[in-house]
Amino acid sequence: MLYDGDCTFCRWSVEQLASLNRDQRLEFVPYQHADAHPERPDLAHADRAQDLAGEIHVVLPDGSLRGAGGAMFEIVDAVPGGWLLRPWMLLPGARALADFGYRLVADRRGWLGDLITYEARGEPRCDLPH
C-alpha cells in the first residue's frame, strides 16, 4: 500500500490498518520512499508510472495498481474479516460508490488530520491542497 507519508490523516489511517494487519498481508510504504526498496522494483515502477500524490494506491502481486476506491477494496479484502464485504464489492456501481466515498474523505484529509491530531499530538496538517 502506497500512501502519503507527509499527510497526518494518511499516517493515522495506516496506524489503524496496521493494527488490523495481523496476517501481514499489507505492506505500508510512503509513496515518497517507493523507489528506496531495491527488492521491490514494482514499487519504483509504480512511482514512475503514475502520480501517486493524489490518492492511496495498492500494488498488486502482478504489479498492477489500484487507486482510490479500488485500492480500498483491495485493502478491505486483505484485513481479517474483509472477505465478508466481498459480495458487496461485486454489486453494480460499488466501485463508483467506493470512489465517491474515498474522494469525500480524501478531499478533507487536511481537516481530518487536524481533527485527529489537534489535541493528541499537535502535528501539522497535510500540506496538499484540499
Q: What does the oligomeric state look like here?
A: single chain
Strand order of the largest sheet: 1-2
Helical proportion, percent range:
40-55%
Number of helices: 6
DSSP strand (E) fraction?
5-15%
Give Rg in angstroms. Answer: 15 Å
Q: What's the main sheet like? A: 2 strands, parallel
Count of the separate structural domains? 1
**Overall residue-averaged pLDDT value:** 84
The ordered H/E elements are: EHEHEEHHHH
Structural class: mainly alpha
Shape: globular
Amino- and carboxy-terminal Cα gap: 22 Å
Number of strands: 4
- Unreliable parts: none
Question: Overview of this structure, please?
Answer:
The chain is mainly alpha-helical and 130 residues long. It has one domain (2-117). Helices cover 45% and strands 8% of the residues. It has six helices and four strands, in the order E-H-E-H-E-E-H-H-H-H. Strand 3 and strand 4 (65-67) form a beta hairpin. Helix 3 (68-78) packs across helix 5 (94-106). The longest helix is centred in the N-terminal third of the chain and has 13 residues, at 8-20. The radius of gyration is 15 Å and the shape is globular. It starts with a strand and ends in a 13-residue tail after the last helix.
